[in-house]
Amino acid sequence: MDYFDRFAVPHPSPAIYASMVAIGLTVIAIFAGLTYFKKWGYLWREWLTTVDHKRIGIMYLISALLMLFRGGADAIMMRAQLAAPENTLLDAQHYNEIFTTHGIVMIIFMAMPFIMAFMNFVVPLQIGARDVAFPRLNALSFWLFFMGAMLLNISFVVGGSPDAGWTSYFPLASNEFSESVGTNYYMFALQISGLGTLMTGINMITTILKMRAPGMTLMKMPMFTWSSLVANIIIVFAFPVLTVALLMGTMDRLFATNFFTTANGGMDMLWANFFWVWGHPEVYILILPAFGIYSEIISTFSRRNLYGYKSMVGSMVIISLLSFLVWTHHFFTMGQGALTNSIFSITTMAIAVPTGVKIFNWLFTLWKGKIVITTPMLYSLLFIPIFTIGGVTGVMLGMSAADYQYHNTMFLVAHFHMVIIPGVVFGMLAGLHYYWPKMFGFKLNDKIGKVEAWVISMSTLLAFMPMFFSGLDGQARRMYTYSESTGFGIYNMISMVGAVGLAIGFCLIVYNVYYSTRYASRDVGSDPWNARTLEWATHSPVPEYNFAMTPQVNSLEPFWDAKKRGHELFTGYYEKIHMPNNSGVPFILGCIFFAWGFSFIFGMWIPAIVTTIGIFACMAYRSFENDHGRYISVNEIQKTETSRGA
Amino acid sequence: MKKKWSFLTIIFTIVIMLTGCEPLLVLDPKGPQAERQASDIMLSIGIMSVIVLVVFVILIIMLVKYRASKQREDYEPPHIEGNIWVEVICVGIPVLIVAYLSFVSVQSNNIVESAPKGYEDKEPLIVYASTSNWKWHFSYPEENIETVNYLYIPTDRALEFKLYSYGPITSFWIPQLGGQKYAMADMLTTLHLAADAPGEYMGRNASFSGKGFAENTFNVTAIPQAEFDEWVEEVKESAEPLTEEKFVELLKPSIVGQSTFTGTHLEFLPPPKKHNKHTNRASNSEHSEHNKY
């Protein structure tokens, strides 16, 4: 039995047993449901083996929403534990595991797939392409991300969750201080999904640079495509750092190397440096695509072109450069001296300038517009003030001497939630409502949508504003409890109310999806928002080949020109369309990677070797495979186009 | 200038009001370093509030004036490319603000990283503060005493803390005396503080270090120099000596109360040799093999 002891949770509680049962029942229900409704074939043909960027985008979207609730459950437990002083709902070990997984899940497995969802779904449509440059690689990216996410999510029922914080600083994350396999999970889950992200980066850059419709020069690209291009360039430069750091961390934990240990010449702060050299650009990887979505939405619903397009592009490029020059601000207090801190203090505050330019450009896009407030627009308009509060506190944190007082406190926690939630989450929710009709052919209910937006934004303020105060009052982050005499109780109680509000808001989104699926009108046409860019020029839902004919582009807003100025978007006649074939290899490879990660996590060397061979076998198979894709005939195109009312 | 200060006062009052009249620790400084940091914080809150206000006002004006419901049915918004002068203002003003804050920031960095001003007549008190899971060890090499989880300091005298850790990275923080700094296993860091007023202050490890992190706190008592000397004498008379066995026992992971010893662990287990800036008195030891420098 000793062999199986390693899979036991080292620190079990009723909540964990309950989740084991819940996970078991859900899996059984899914399998039973698929068998009963005879959907196995459908699932395999249409989803598991798909290489269609739109379906992959939708799978990213579903994963992101699931992970939002997983990370949200963690958040609620944390806030409940802290709501009252000396609370005993969770013990220290559980609290540590929960805030660790909350961070990892929300950043890596919620925010990342959310932006990937929109990049995948929207970018090829916006540039008038039929798919991404490497459709099968795209499927592999998704499955690697998905398997990484699943790997992390089984950690709390098999072997124990990581407990060293999402930053996983060594030596705390070393075997000496983090004895369970939790941090191994961290290393492999991030490694596997990180590889997927890196592939997406390469894929998207190639797609955007090589597959734009005729006439679409770089400076005629829609803002979301621009933001995706910049974000993916950051990915390609930043993620290799993470890959190497994780590899070194893995070596330390599994093979007794001493990269980050405190003995034998290891340097613990080297991990912190590596982590943030990746981690800070990562923040901009998340937020730039959200900025892109806001640009699209604000311009659409102001019924105006985006103000200062060139400076928007320029500011993104500057942000991407600066994002690599500020990582030390995550540890101003390491003791590197006044000079180093001064340099990084200035670069950090300098980021406020291009970000400010973007805020003002959005405000001036409203100027002389004809503002229609719909749900996506409401999210965008609520983003501006809340993000501004979060953003200016970032400038405050950038003052390095003062940062000695903010560092590691709830003030910092308040700051990054007040930028990431309005910045990324609002952006993704706005995108969700905005692109929903393009994805599924009906709109989400606008009334429920507006209630969501208000509930979520006000709850964000309620949950995180008090943390600025408790931080300045000396509440360090990641404390699982505090005594009554500290006086933190009131702030944390208000935060708890906000957290409950956020939970209600997110449940409203689910209700909205349910309600609209049942009752919303299916007759919304291809352009329900009176939008301006190419993705709205094709049908909703989009046919698999995206555009029956390649669109001709002459300006920044070709679809708007087609509607208002008689620009001919589609000229010529139908021709047969070359499309890639579906493939099961990415899914299978993803599963092998899952087993590979699992074997390494528990140090099971024989399965580790077998799966490693399996990975190379899959790649070899792909190299020798003869697959030239297939053609959609003119007849078929005509049929599809007529049935969708072209 | 007058306006700026009255604005800062208003903000300060609001902050105080919101916290039930009890000042927040960080904004209630009791030493020169913390004072500088608190004034930086108030200054940046003031300037940032103006920016937030400007954004809010512009947003509200735009929303009130340009709503579709306020306009003619056939109003067609114009195509506006952007204006070079607007861009110059949008870049220029933030650049000026950031430049000013950078200037202040660089100045403050040099202040908090050097010995506090005004106490040049006295030698600074040097305290070696080290952590092990999850406690604080304070060694007073000159007084030749050591305490666990509590700290006595003289007022009106510069304090120089030498920080290191027997384990995970920790962060030494006494909010009312000044900001924090990391304590790490393979190098020695220096934090300069001073206390202007006698009193009891909260001190803690601010950097997450595992299960006992929440309890990883210490009490700070600041007393005038004469009383401090008395306390040292008292400790020397009453406390038992710190032996190597006792100290190794203490290093094991645990949450313990306060204790006091004569002698310091520096003699048999010196701190890491590598240091960030200032000289330290660590002798060569077995610890030098722990780092290759």
TrEMBL record, chain A:
Note on how the cofactor is bound: Heme A3.
Pathway(s): Energy metabolism; oxidative phosphorylation
Chief location bin: membrane
Record's catalysed reaction(s): 2 a quinol + O2 = 2 a quinone + 2 H2O
Keyword Transport: yes
CDD domains: Ubiquinol_Oxidase_I
TM ranges: 15-37, 58-78, 98-125, 137-158, 185-209, 229-250, 270-294, 306-327, 339-364, 376-402, 414-436, 448-469, 489-514, 584-602
Compartments it resides in: Cell membrane
Record bears the keyword Oxidoreductase: yes
Keywords annotated in UniProt: Cell membrane, Copper, Electron transport, Heme, Hydrogen ion transport, Ion transport, Iron, Membrane, Metal-binding, Oxidoreductase, Respiratory chain, Transmembrane, Transmembrane helix, Transport
InterPro entries recorded: Cyt_c_oxase-like_su1_dom (IPR023616), Cyt_c_oxase-like_su1_sf (IPR036927), Cyt_C_Oxase_1 (IPR000883), Cyt_c_Oxase_su1_BS (IPR023615), QoxB (IPR014233)
Domain of life of the source: Bacteria
Cytochrome oxidase subunit I profile domain residues: 38-554
Cofactor: ferriheme a; Cu cation
EC number(s) reported in the record: 1.10.3.-
Gene3D superfamilies listed in its UniProt record: Cytochrome c oxidase-like, subunit I domain
Topology class, membrane: Multi-pass membrane protein
Family: Belongs to the heme-copper respiratory oxidase family.
Main function: Catalyzes quinol oxidation with the concomitant reduction of oxygen to water.
UniProt name for this protein: Quinol oxidase subunit 1
Organism field: Cytobacillus citreus
Recorded name of the encoding gene: qoxB
Automatic annotation (TrEMBL), chain B:
UniProt biased composition (Basic and acidic residues): 284-293
Pfam families, alphabetized: COX2_TM
Positions of the Cytochrome oxidase subunit II transmembrane region profile domain: 17-116
Record Gene3D superfamilies: 1.10.287.90, Cupredoxins - blue copper proteins (2.60.40.420)
Lipid bilayer topology: Multi-pass membrane protein
Keywords: Cell membrane, Electron transport, Membrane, Oxidoreductase, Respiratory chain, Signal, Transmembrane, Transmembrane helix, Transport
NCBIfam families in alphabetical order: QOXA
PANTHER family membership: CYTOCHROME BO(3) UBIQUINOL OXIDASE SUBUNIT 2, CYTOCHROME C OXIDASE, SUBUNIT II
Protein name: Quinol oxidase polypeptide II
Originating organism: Cytobacillus citreus
Lineage: Bacteria, Bacillati, Bacillota, Bacilli, Bacillales
Gene: qoxA
